[in-house]
Structure formats: structure tokens, C-alpha cells
Amino acid sequence: MELDRYGLWEGINEVIVTTVSSEGKPNAAPIGVIRRDGKLMVRVFNGSQTYVNVRDTGLLAANMVYDPVLFVRSALSDVGEDVFEFIKTDNGEDFPVIADCSAWMLFEAEHNSGDRVLVAELCPVTGTIRHQEIRPVNRAFNAVIEAVVLATRYKVFKNENYLLQINSYRNTIYKCGGSTEKKAYDLIFSLL
């Protein structure tokens, strides 16, 4: 598969990863898919449902999404099942992807799980490009992504400096963003 066509460029690509539990419950969480030297990998921290699901099933899907509210909701709360649609894997099992994503790629995750982090090399299985939007860089969208990453760190470490950093993105989001980016930013604080 041509990774560039799916938007997985060299560096860290912020996507919403979907996984499924061994009981069949879907999960969504923002994760950085790392592409370096032709390889793809993820780092997933212990204590998350994503960690458990990848460890148990060895599968994850990277969903290319441009909805800042969904990034915030999937990072700081559980999303409803209405966010997902299910595809069939090669072995006939249902696997969740984001219904409104621009594209998704399903990966086998060959992983080593440690005490704190699971590191997985990703091997593409299949994927679908639904539409390729022309998306110029939006500083507010990028600032929301940075703020939600900091929010997840604040939830784990409870360090007030993360709140100060999240607040530093407010002016950029309110100056450069539309109503969706502003809603996503405000949602961060209501979910913390």
C-alpha cells in the first residue's frame, strides 16, 4: 500500500486509532503513527484500553480524521458506538473504523509490551480511501491537537504546567479557528 496516498508521511502522523476488545467492544483514541525509514510504528501507554486491545488482538486501524471535536472526545472520554462502522477482517471478524473518516488502514501490530509502553511495528493489511480532501494547514486545528495531547498528559501526571500550556493555545484557536475548533478547545476543559 502506498502510505503517502493515505496521508501517512515521514514523522509522526496524528490519527484516531480504532481497536476492539476480545469481547468485541470498539474503542477509539488519538495516537501518533510514526513513520521512519520506511517503517511504521506506534507507542501505546499501559493503562489504556488501546494498550489492552492491541496486546490481546494484535490489530489496530489508523483513521484519518479532520474533526477536532472527535479528537478531543476520543482522547478524554469514551465515544459512542454511533461513531463506528464495522468492516470484515480477512478472518471474517468485525473490526471498527470511524464512520466519517477520510481514509482508514487496518494493521497487524507486531508488538512488544513492557510495563509502561507497548511498541508495535505496523504491517498494513487493507485500507480504504473514501475521499481526499484538499486541506490547507489550519493553525487552530493543529493547536487543538497539541492542546489535547497536553490534556492527556495532564490527566496522567496532574502537573499544572500542562494546563498553562493548554491555555497558551487559546488565542491561536480563537483567532484562526472556526466554530468547530473553538468547540473542541472548550470541550477539553469540560472533560478535564
Describe the structure in your own words:
This protein has 192 residues and is of the alpha+beta class. It folds into two domains: 3-129, Electron Transport, Fmn-binding Protein, Chain A (Pnp Oxidase, Chain A), CATH 2.30.110; 139-191, Methane Monooxygenase Hydroxylase, Chain G, domain 1. Helices cover 34% and strands 35% of the residues. It contains six helices and eight strands, in the order βββαβαββββαααα. The chain has helices at residues 49-57, 68-76, 139-157, 160-168, 170-176, 179-191; strands at 11-20, 26-36, 39-45, 59-64, 84-88, 94-98, 103-113, 117-129. The strands form two sheets. Strands 1-2-3-8-7-4 form a six-stranded antiparallel beta barrel. β5 (84-88) and β6 (94-98) form a beta hairpin. α2 (68-76) runs parallel beside α3, α3 (139-157) runs antiparallel to α4 (160-168) and α3 (139-157) runs antiparallel to α5 (170-176). The longest helix has 19 residues, at 139-157. The mean pLDDT is 95.
